[in-house]
Design goal:
By secondary structure, this protein is an all-alpha fold. It has a single domain, classed as MetI-like (MetI-like fold). Helix 4 crosses helix 5.
Amino acid sequence: MDVPLGEIWEIAWRSLRIAGAATFLAALFGLPLGVWLGARPRRGGGSARVVLYAAMGLPPVVVGLFFYLLLSRSGPLGKSGLLFTQTAMVMAEAVLAFPMIAGFTAAGVRARAANVRRLVRGLGGSEKQVLTTLLWESRRPIVAALAAGFGSAISEVGAATITGGDIRHHTRVLTTAVVLETRKGELRSALMLGLVLLGLTLLVTAVLVVWGERE
């Protein structure tokens, strides 16, 4: 096998760290936006939801190109030195994960908002209690949103290559490593890396599902 086992775990840990940071950053803004859009009256926020759902189809290479132009030496943030770093990869993957998290959250909250508001208000509850109850009742869609965001981040290859450069021991992640090994004809290494990627995705998703199913 062309890639040593130790390096495979190094790449896997780097992939998990970058995708996790991107998911956290996307959730930091995506969850509140999704809850706000979902909790609005039926006729409100329609245009915002359309834009949000359309953003789920953002081409990763276009997002990568945007950050490349932004962070390159001739770009507005060229002096930051962030191009071909893990930070640039986190930023690009967060942009891709953001509409997934916000969109799934908005859809899940919207499906429950009217019934929850009617129930809590009927029992004499406040609007704050409506929101609290709505968040709890929507925990499964929110978990699905986080899983979708993480899956989008960790499986990304186009934006990761453009912003990170696939530098060994620095910005190489599982997806870019799979592409590299496949191009070299090292199919055994590519298959091993792919299985590790699949295993990490399943593990994180299982943890999120177990957390979301708690009573």
